[in-house]
Amino acid sequence: MTLSGPAPWLLLVAGAHLGFQLTVALVVYPALADVPDAGWATAHERHSRRITPLVAAIYLPLVAVLAWTAVAEPGAEGTWLALAGGAVAVLTTAAVAAPTHGRLATAPSAERPELLRGLRLADQVRTAGAVVCAVGAVVLVW
Question: Any idea where the domains of the chain sit in the sequence?
Answer without folding.
Answer: 6-141
